[in-house]
Amino acid sequence: MEHTLRAELTPRSDMRVPLQRWLVPVLATAVYPFLLNSYSAIAHAGSDSAVFLQQLALYSTASALMLAAFAVPCLALASLIGLEKNEGPAMRLLRRLLHVAATTPPLYVLAMQLAAAVGVRAYANALWWSAWILVAVLTWRYLRTTHSAGHLRTDSIIDRWIPALRVVHGIAALTLLLVFLAAHLVNHLAALWSVEAHQSLMKLLRVWYRATWVEPVVLGLCGAMIATGFVLVGFHTRTTGDGYRTVQTAMGAYLVAFMLAHTNAVFWGRSVHIDTDWLFASGGPSGLLLSTSYFLIPYYPLAVIAVFTHIGLGIRIVLLGHRIQPAIAARAAYAVSTLGAVVTIVIAMALFGMHIAR
């Protein structure tokens, strides 16, 4: 026993993290704005072309670039799942870094909002690229001087509150789902029929969730989820977990960044007297594909997937806590995620300008 304990506390220099395991996702995050901007330029060139084969080639290239942008957070998630399971400081850093990279779409929107707020919007992409290159260099230097050794964890005061925070987080999520989110998603689904259908339903729903006493409750629930989500992600990235837990915390991190960016955008729109309706979200009547809001193309669909996946994995944990068989609990999570994929496709089609009734 004593020998084993010494081994756990002794740094092991042979525990090196493969460079590609973390550097590739970080560099992919750095070039994320380039992928989006290149997509927009090539897609517009395709729409202006009168030659069919040239148009086909340009649209194919633009599609490939957008798929690469979608792949950036997925690459970070895949790397997260593949990280070695130990609790050393190096692994803790990489888990947190890759969680941040998994939030790239909303994090980029937040970065642009911040750049606009301080008057450097024109330099936002250069600042983003420079910041992530600096992160890559500092991470590389840290990993070269820090061993990924196992160590004994000691419970902190926050750790003792984790079970209670999980309950608060779950109650806030369930309440938000019932009070606002379910209706909000149904409203977006209506846009596949027509923008007018969405607008009509939106006006009806706003009577409820923009009511004097309801809207503060919704914002309070969002604040509670963001605050508890930060703490829970911090806790779970300090320790090791299985693939289910890793996906859940990554989806949670994405939603934290999304709620911050989305709430900020909505209140900015209201402050300048812009109706934050479907046209505000989709970049105009023609949809996101050729609008100036093309950077929202990965941002929205991945948020819907994150919502359903996070909920599904939360249900799995609840079922396991009630001693439901793991296979059944996992199937419940997969069922919710599959429903989320269907909802995502429908909403994405509407966002891209596809409507059944014209």
Condensed summary:
The chain has 358 residues and is mostly helical. It has helices at 2-9, 19-30, 32-48, 52-82, 89-101, 104-117, 124-145, 157-190, 195-209, 214-238, 243-271, 278-282, 299-321, 326-351. 77% of the residues lie in helices and 0% in strands.
Describe the structure using short key phrases:
single chain; 0% strand; 3 helical TM bundles of succinate and fumarate reductases; 358 residues; mainly alpha
Explain the overall architecture.
α11 crosses α13. The chain is globular. The termini are far apart. With 358 residues, it is an all-alpha fold. It has helices at residues 2-9, 19-30, 32-48, 52-82, 89-101, 104-117, 124-145, 157-190, 195-209, 214-238, 243-271, 278-282, 299-321, 326-351. It folds into two domains: 15-151, no CATH class; 153-358, 3 helical TM bundles of succinate and fumarate reductases (Up-down Bundle).
